[in-house]
């Protein structure tokens, strides 16, 4: 039997919408076919998932998404959608790509419908060319404007596409490269949508790593597939399975299963041959093949167990005056974000029955500020109070050596110790109820509230931290984890200090 891609997606998520109309979807498919763009079954089903309207003629979904492996033809579905939105509905569209070359390709494909200029005698479809008011070919800011008000601007996000204008639709192509600052700038372009019914369309493949780049795409996808978003229309072609939970042997079998090839490649046997996929499977690592050819995302963090539910956190929250002023710090935990632009420091302050965790610093950081951080620790720790951090913390690169050179007691947790530290913090909040934190510290609260337990492979019951919301920093949780562990394992016994001296040290925690 010949290799044929599966036309049914793994995810076809649409909002619950009573009496939704699909008339525009069928009209869109027919219009595309009339102009030489006959959609595959799977592409037509994308249009049907997106183009659903309420009886009040509003879009059922305000976020549309499509994820399918490369070379399957996702842009064919998008071209049909853009053509219909412009020609029939007269909407204004901003189409953005990560690369300028991708933006130019998209623009050339649109010109194949409308022609290359106003009154183009060589236009393939004169009736479409007759609607053209202007075709702008400015490098990186191409545009087609129609007489019915329809408009599309096409550009690279790095080139400042669409800044200062208002659109009904924002297309985010190559969404795996979409960054937070780009999202902040571009979403404003549809906030004052001329139609009053803006839509943002995300299209792409899984990012190579979960970080700043691709974070908005991961967030949108997670919200859709976990049901958190009620106004998302998401279509994804990928095989059933969770890579994060597979052993290496299971992963190898997974990527060699040709049923999974078909599930992740609806254009298999048409645009992509079986032999091409065979070659990729032989040359690429299993995880790269799963991401690039099978379109497999990391498991949504929302499916994992929340480490510190709000009820647990509120139970342990205290007011400022509830902490003994005579108590002093026994350990500091330290962490930094991957970009090395933010730093978190948490203090562990033991009491008679509970240890208080106080976020001493949560601030921006620059490499030239290293000496100031070192002096901050020296003033509070000298050689007695340990500074604790995870072995994989980005803070090690910049701060471990300077702190040790100054004479501070730096303790770096190896993998096993960090797993123990995570378990200790979880147990302290849930079972022992032996920790407190200041209710006023929103950064620590938001970080803990968004922390989830990520199970470790081949270690049943063991876990480390990850986050459920990519907008929230994990650093305060990491710093608190290290501080509590350092307080019990590395802290030295201290002589009792006078109440006045201790109070001075306690109120000097903040930077």
Overview of the molecule:
With 511 residues, the chain is of the alpha/beta class. It folds into two domains: 11-241, P-loop containing nucleotide triphosphate hydrolases (Rossmann fold); 305-506, 2-Layer Sandwich (Nucleotidyltransferase, domain 5). The chain is 37% helix and 19% strand. It contains 19 helices and 19 strands. It has helices spanning 23-34, 41-50, 74-87, 100-114, 126-129, 180-186, 188-191, 215-225, 248-256, 258-264, 274-283, 286-292, 310-316, 370-381, 395-405, 415-432, 442-449, 475-489, 499-506, and strands at residues 11-13, 63-67, 92-97, 132-136, 141-146, 151-156, 169-172, 199-204, 232-236, 305-306, 317-318, 331-336, 342-350, 355-364, 387-390, 410-413, 435-438, 451-455, 463-467. The protein is elongated and about 90 Å long. 41% of the residues are buried.
User: How many strands in all?
Assistant: 19
Radius of gyration: 27 Å
CATH class of the largest domain: Alpha Beta
Query: How much helical structure, as a percent, in the residues?
Result: 25-40%
Strand order of the largest sheet: 1-9-2-8-7-3-6-5-4
Name the average pLDDT.
89
Summarize this structure briefly:
The protein is α/β, with parallel strands linked by helices. It has two domains: 231 residues, Rossmann fold, CATH 3.40.50; 202 residues, 2-Layer Sandwich (Nucleotidyltransferase, domain 5). Helices cover 37% and strands 19% of the residues.
Q: What features would you highlight for this structure?
A:
511 residues, alpha/beta, Rossmann fold, Nucleotidyltransferase, domain 5, 2 domains, nine-stranded mixed beta sheet, seven-stranded mixed beta sheet, 19 strands, 37% helix
């Amino acid at each position: 039997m010949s290799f044929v891609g599966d036309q049914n997606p793994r995810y076809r998520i649409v909002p619950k919408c009573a009496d939704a109309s699909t008339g525009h979807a069928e009209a869109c498919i027919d219009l595309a076919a009339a102009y030489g763009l006959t959609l595959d079954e799977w592409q037509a089903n994308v249009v049907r998932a997106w183009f659903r309207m309420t009886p009040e003629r509003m879009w059922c979904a305000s976020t549309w998404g499509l994820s399918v492996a490369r070379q399957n033809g996702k842009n064919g579905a998008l071209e049909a959608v853009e053509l219909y939105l412009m020609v029939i509905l007269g909407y204004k569209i901003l189409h953005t790509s990560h690369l300028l070359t991708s933006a130019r390709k998209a623009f050339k494909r649109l010109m194949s419908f409308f022609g290359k200029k106003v009154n183009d005698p060589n236009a393939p479809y004169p009736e479409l060319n007759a609607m053209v008011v202007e075709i702008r070919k400015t490098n990186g800011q191409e545009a087609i404007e129609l007489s019915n008000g329809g408009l599309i601007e096409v550009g690279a996000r790095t080139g400042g596409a669409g800044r200062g204008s208002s659109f009904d639709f924002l297309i985010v192509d190559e969404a795996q490269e979409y960054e937070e600052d780009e999202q902040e700038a571009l979403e404003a372009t549809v906030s004052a949508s001329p139609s009053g019914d803006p839509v943002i369309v995300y299209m792409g493949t899984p990012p190579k790593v979960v970080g700043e780049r691709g974070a908005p795409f991961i967030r949108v996808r997670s919200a859709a597939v976990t049901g958190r978003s009620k106004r998302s229309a998401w279509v994804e072609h990928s095989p059933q399975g969770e890579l994060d939970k597979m052993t290496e042997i299971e992963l190898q079998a997974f990527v060699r299963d040709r049923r999974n090839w078909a599930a992740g490649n609806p254009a298999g046997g048409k645009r992509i041959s079986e032999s091409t996929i065979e070659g990729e499977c032989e040359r690429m690592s299993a995880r790269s093949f799963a991401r690039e050819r099978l379109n497999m995302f990391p498991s949504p963090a929302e499916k994992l167990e929340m480490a510190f539910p709000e009820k647990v956190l509120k139970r342990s929250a205290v007011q400022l005056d509830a902490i003994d002023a005579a108590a002093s710090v026994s350990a500091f935990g330290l962490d930094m974000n991957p970009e090395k632009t933010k730093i978190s420091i948490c203090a562990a302050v033991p009491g008679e029955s509970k240890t208080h965790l106080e976020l001493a610093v949560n601030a921006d950081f620059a490499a030239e500020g290293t000496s100031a951080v070192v002096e901050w620790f020296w003033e509070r720790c000298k050689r007695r109070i340990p500074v604790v951090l995870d072995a994989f913390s980005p803070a090690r690169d910049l701060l471990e050596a300077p702190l040790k050179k100054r004479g501070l007691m730096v303790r770096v947790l190896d993998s096993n110790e960090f797993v123990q530290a995570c378990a200790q913090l979880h147990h302290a909040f849930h079972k022992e109820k032996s920790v407190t934190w200041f209710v006023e510290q929103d950064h620590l609260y938001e970080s803990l509230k968004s922390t989830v337990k990520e199970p470790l492979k081949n270690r049943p019951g063991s876990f480390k931290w990850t986050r459920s919301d990519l907008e929230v920093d994990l650093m305060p949780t990491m710093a608190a984890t290290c501080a509590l562990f350092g307080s019990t394992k590395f802290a030295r016994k201290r002589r009792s200090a006078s109440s006045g001296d201790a109070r001075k040290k306690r109120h000097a925690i903040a930077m």
